[in-house]
Amino acid sequence: MSKVEDWYYITVRDRIFKVRQSPAYLEFDGVSKEFLMYYFALDEPYSTILTQINKDPHINSAIKRYYGLRIIRQDPWECLISFLCSSAANIPKITLNLEMLSRAFGKKIELNEFEQYSFPNPGELNNYEQILLAKTGFRAKYIKIANSLVSEDFLKSLRKLSYGEAKQTLRNIPGIGDKIADCILLFSLGFTEAFPIDTWMKKILQKLYFKNKVISNKELSAFGAKYFGKYAGYAQQFLYIFARNSMAA
DNA sequence: AGACAGGGGTAGG
DNA sequence: CCTACCCCTGTC
Predict the structure, then answer these.
(1) What is the CA A215 to C1' B4 distance in angstroms?
(2) Protein residues with beta carbon less than 7 Å from any atom of strand C
């Protein structure tokens, strides 16, 4: 997304919409209300979720501080490619990769005066050299393969599976391990029980719940699922943003 | 200025 | 469990 004046312009595949929060309303243009509700997951029972994950004073303070934090339902294909770009990278670099991929493979689109390149569809990221030119490095081969393996139907079919089955199916794609699979499931496919463990989650969980002892990612993952339950992904997001803003490296 | 480390991981040893 | 992997960026 890009902020222009007080509007946020958000690109989803080949369309752009814009939103801004006024005190009492969410204002938007370019999409239907139904799409907006879906995209920002405004149909979720927010207060019930917060009650369910509020297990102790640590997460309680994270929830208090970041109240209003939501988990969007991003386009799954965009999400998958974005997270393939994310390994051993950082936000500015991932943003650069995605912009360059869109510029190379997408087409120019606009809303009002705002111009952007669309995100290529599954099957359209079919030129390895171009993917490499987007500065994706060792991730280029994963993007190329994912492009040939993944279709809209494949992504759709994941929704019908259990969390465990869907995760295993995603893990069969080269470049997708536990963390990236969980991110795709949580941020685009509505699997709220997914609990991605990255370096920040590892740090904060060890600190808050394991007396600073080193714990394997596998064990941390099991802890998250058991301790926070069906909406563990929301707990993950509150703890994650809390960790990033309080343990800043 | 140029070298160096490390970043929202994964695969392969 | 350890390390290389591409590339960008911040630091010394």
Answers:
(1) 29
(2) A 88-89, 92-93, 96, 132, 135-139, 216
Q: Which residue bears the tokens 């808050």?
A: A208
Q: Are A46-67+195-247 and A76-188 equal in CATH topology? A: no
Residue A183 CB in 7 A reach of strand B: yes
pLDDT tens, position by position, A51-85: 999 999 999 999 999 999 999 999 999 999 999 99
Nearest residue to B9 via alpha carbon and C1': A87
**Domain ranges across chain A:** 2-39, 46-67+195-247, 76-188
Which bases of strand B sit closer than 7 A to a protein CB?
Answer: 6-11
Catalytic residue among A179, A207, A218, A226: A179
**Number of CB atoms found within 10 A of residue A77's CB:** 24
Say if domain A76-188 classifies as CATH 2.30.30.100.
no
pTM attached to this predicted model: 0.96
R_g over Cα of chain A: 18
CA–CA distances in Å: residue A247 to residues A165, A210, A242: 34, 16, 8
Q: A181 with A171: CB under 8 angstroms?
A: yes
- To the query of whether residue A213 is one of the catalytic residues in this protein, the response is no
A46-67+195-247: CATH topology is: Endonuclease Iii, domain 2 (1.10.1670)
Structure tokens at A231: 């909406």
